[in-house]
Request: fold
Amino acid sequence: MLRHITAITVIAVLQCAAALPAHGLSSFRTIDGSYNNLSDQLQGAANTPLIRKAGVADYPGDGSGSTIIEPPMRPNARVISNAMSAQTQSIPDVHHLTDFIWQWGQFVDHDIDLTGSGTGNGTAPIPVADGDLLAPGPIPFSRSNFAAGTGVPGTPREQVNQITSYIDASNVYGSDDARAGELRSNIGGKLKTSSGNLLSLNTGGFPNTNENPFVPAEQLFLSGDMRANEQVGLTAMHTLFMREHNRLADLIAVKHFAGQNLSDPAVDEEIYQTARKIVGAQIQAITYNQFLPAILGPNAITPYTGYDPGVDASIANAFSAALYRFGHSTLSSQLQLASGGHVELKDAFFNPGLITNDPGIVDDLLGGFALQPMQMADLKVVDAVRNFLFGPPGAGGLDLVALNIQRGRDHGLVGYNAARAAYGLPTPGPNDFHLITSDPMLQIALSNIFGTVDDVDMWVGALAEDHVPGASVGQLVHAGLVDQFTRLRDGDRFFYLNDPDLASAHIASIIDLDRVTLGKIIEQNTSMPVMQHNVFMMMPEPATAGLVLVGLAAVVRRRRA
Reply:
């Protein structure tokens, strides 16, 4: 089947070849995602607009999006959060998924979309009532960047994706030449490291998200995505795949460049690009073979039939600004450590010192994600991100639920019912809140706050839904993820099952992509023994799990001592 798929794709590529510049025919991806689709060279590339799968809501006023829907047209976002999303106890996922679901989900999200914001685009601060934990407020909110030529009367704002849409490991390597170059050692195809086999530090002053005014920019780690320091678990993931790239580069050098000068630019480039290709393929394989089946069920995404240049792999605005944000409800309030103990999530934000002062915590965090059950995907969200997001230790912060709702309004997302229609799902009547959820108390809360189903914000309605049988999300999130990840697969000329290089003996001597798992990559790059074959699923047998956990804790404590 793979050879048949590849042959079809080669014919399609050759039909376009004569009119393309040399990099359009390269066997390696461009760093910015351009020339993946040979007929539409900027499709899915960095700094191109998100697409509208579900249309755009009617912005107030002239329709340009210069103002957004706010009270009294819709309820205040913080009021909705306080009324519906306060989580007072642990609510584990019923399918026994682990915290690796949300951590991998965040890592992949930072590979496929980034929408920047700034006060120059306008602001929409969220008022906070007297007596609120976040009072006196308001919650600050800067609006998203939007494409030139949009945001004028009659042409609503179209927000821009600053990174490549493709699952191509741009979070490891970058989406522009300058950042990609800064990350490279230029010897043997390897990436730079810092003490403890950690990510390199941002001594070059590259753009990096930093919500902690007490951490100097040069103490932040540098990776392919500017959000790598957002929380220490995410930083551990970036560290893991930097190490995996360098492990692969060493293997490639030994097997295919023995005796050659690894400082030779041509040798360095070939090793780097080959390792980069493999890492991108690994991330794809884990996403489609382990991550998505765990969330959506084993047969949610149809079997692969090959590359289709007519499929647009760009990120949908509804996916980016609402539906993929289901993961925020699955967060735990603590990051479990494999050695025992934990890191409070509210203390993990923009705190690279936890890693630089103790490099062994990277292994400890990665092991811990596989040991703790994730929270159920619902409207409940832990206080660490609902009241303390990005706040300094011991103080309040931001509200991620309110920000999600406000971001949807900023982007002109249609409401819940219109989104269901756009994704081919039946739409409840104006008062049919019982068709969203079987929970009578939640039905009443939705009715009291929104009045009509048509006015429910997309994120709220999507998270309120009963789950699809066999899945850990409701119908709307399920449909949004199936649509987006199917397009990311079928519209990617370099998808790992379609890339002839990855089927070659040259690559097969380095790695068997059919056997890639996240657990195996962790085992090869850390001190962690593998605890279960699929780290996205809790270990099913309590007695065995207990023995493994005791042994694992002892190993980690010994190696960090």
About this structure: The chain has one domain: 2-296+314-560. The chain has a mean pLDDT of 92. Residues 199 and 239 are 6 Å apart (CA to CA).
